Amino acid sequence: MCNTEQSSDSSCIKNKGNFFFMLSKQSGVKTTDHYTYASSSKNIQIFLNGVIYNTNEEQLIEGFLSQGVDYINHVEGSFIIFLIEGTQFHIITDKVNSKKAFYAFIDSVWYISNNIDALPKQKCQISLPGLACYLANGIMLNDLTLFQEIRSAKRACVHSFKNSEISIRNYWSYHYEYSASTINQQENYQKELEFLLIRSIKRRYTPTSKTAISLSGGYDSRSILGILYKNFEASNITCFSYALTENPKTDSDGDIAKEIATKCGYSHQTFISYKGDLIEYLKANVREGKCVSDFCTELEAWHRLAASNQFSDMFVGEHSFGGHFVDVKSKEEILGSLHIWGASGIRWLGNFISKKIYKQMCQSLNKLTDDIFESTNAIPDPFDKQNFLYLDQRLNHALLPWRENFSSQAGFVHNPFLDGDILEFTMKLPPYMRKYRLLYWNTIRKMLPDFFSIRRATLKDNNPDWQEELHNHKDLLISLIQRTDSRLDGIISKKELLTALELKVSIIKKAKTFPMRVLNYIRIRNKPADKLISIFTGHRVQRSANPTELLLRLLMIRIYLSPSLSDN
Questions:
Q1: What is the pTM for the complete model shown?
Q2: Which residue in 66, 115, 297, 396 has the fewest CB atoms around it within 10 Å?
Q3: Distance between CA atoms of 135 and 346, rounded to whole angstroms?
Q4: Helix (H) or strand (E) holding 359
């Protein structure tokens, strides 16, 4: 089952592979996959998926031999490690959980893999909390999956398995420690951050590799490009963007990205994000995203990029520098700013599905959001709560699984702004330096003034009108639902799904001709009318998943739980 792609040099080791293990008291650890690295005695066997930046093969083996799992405190990278240490077995995640692992205990056996589809899903019960979470959020928060027995590994943790027990130990914590005296240290902090940014990119950049940069018209990816160009005089760089056509519209991401790349003398390619086949798009999202990642709107671009076989490595710009968060204080405001939804996220579905099921899903979502927010109880400042949850939940469960499941098809994905030293540095910044990413912006603009003289993209040109696509594929979707069965049918029936689809599509058709301004005027002026209309169209001001998103997620779940479809 292991399909590896391996390389190493004196300071960096890389490996791509899917691994599967079975653990039991009677048989110990069983796997048909070959280890990535091992000690001569085979007492240490390392199964690596990902990249480690600050060590080589010999140092990694010696570290685990001499220090055991505690050696992970010295490792910098983007990885999942399965470690066999004598008779002991461990899952080790990196600080931000950029690579996922899953485990289940069924019939006295532990099943463990970094590919959820390798686990015996047919032996598992559907998880109503997992189902509700995915519908409301498009991702799996905390350790949820669609299956009761299957859990995902936690970030920055060592998971140790013995007989029927699992112990989970956190080896690194993300918390803010700053004092009032930092208000006079901004200039020194800018110098320190500049040093850390350059060093982080140096760790990840290989002059001999074929390197791509996922370049948008925003600021983060252009910062990486600017440092590679100015500080390393990198010549092996190709930039790419995605759009609905090969000729992006003026002031769109693709248009601005091409201007930035041209400024550096780098080539730029635009990949088409969607070709118009919604049915195949849903199936591909299921095969690759596995109902762990949300609906990928630019999946065709990743397919084309991977098929071109041009690149071995890719730089992307996820970060934890703070954000443009509005000032919020309440639980609902903080979670909503991070797109973490409770029962409000599935409100529209309450008009179609069983009242009993709807109530149970609402209860599970409210418990989930309570649990997430309670994890910040020791954090007094609301902005610090928000920043912590951005890393702990949004990066962990939304952005990084998208990179792993889709972007990594085209090469090893490198996130220089999530370097461990940069994360440690960020923890000592007071809120005002993180609000609007103040310190980061001041630092990077001073480093790269010419790059930030180029305007920012103001137009999104990579996403079709998915409501329109639902309308255009209505008959095919209805046929697909009618002629196939799914494990979802026992929870949300075919009839309930078809009713929701029919009603949504009919509203889309009417919306093409009905003056929406008049409709919105009525909704603003008449609360009862607004409430009635929201049954069909969703809420006027979107504060959670809209009906279109809910339908796309329902369709993906149904396909994923239908073996005849998910395997195609």
A1: 0.92
A2: 66
A3: 7
A4: helix 355-374
CA pair distance 144, 130, nearest whole angstrom: 5
Helix (H, G, I), strand (E, B) or coil at 268: strand
Residues 6+ apart with CB under 8 A from 34: 2, 4
Question: Could you give the angle at the alpha carbon of 494 between the alpha carbons of 292 and 120, nearest 5°?
Answer: 40
- pLDDT at 508 (0 to 100): 55
Residues 6+ apart with CB under 8 A from 205: 211, 228, 232, 234
* CATH 3.40.50.620 applies to domain 180-323+393-453: yes
Query: Strand 211-214 vs strand 237-243: parallel, antiparallel, or unpaired?
Result: parallel
Helices (H) and strands (E) in the chain, counts: 21, 18
User: Cα(108)–Cα(27) distance, rounded to whole angstroms?
Assistant: 11
3-state class (DSSP) for residue 402: helix
Residue-wise pLDDT tens digits, 39-83: 999 999 999 999 999 999 999 999 999 999 999 999 999 999 999
Architecture of domain 5-170: 4-Layer Sandwich (3.60)
Alpha carbon distance 401, 116 (integer Å): 13
Write out the two tokens for 470: 């639902």
Q: Which residues of 15-45 are buried (b: 16+ CB within 10 A; e: fewer)?
A: bbbbbbbbbeeeeebebebebbbbeeeeebb
Q: Which residues of 151-162 are buried (b: 16+ CB within 10 A; e: fewer)?
A: bbbbbbbbbbbe
pLDDT digits (tens, 9 = 90+) for 179-198: 866 667 889 999 999 999 99
Tokens representing 433? 């330096």
User: 180-323+393-453: same fold as 5-170?
Assistant: no
CA distances from 497 to 25, 285, 340, 361, 434 (A): 44, 19, 24, 16, 44
The angle subtended at Cα 542 by Cα 498 and Cα 330, nearest 5°, is 125
Query: Kind and range of the H or E element at 168?
Result: strand 165-170
Provide the sign of the torsion angle of the four alpha carbons 127, 129, 133, 135, taken in this order.
positive
If you write DSSP's letter for every residue of 12-23 in order, what string do you get?
A: -EEEE---EEEE
Of residues 491, 384, 416, the one with CA closest to residue 197: 416
Please list the residues that pair with 459 across neighbouring strands: 252
pLDDT score of 540: 44
Closest CA to 496 of 363, 351, 356: 351
* Residues contacting 122, CB < 8 A, separation 6+: none
- Report, in angstroms and rounded to the nearest whole number, the Rg of the chain calculated over CA atoms: 24
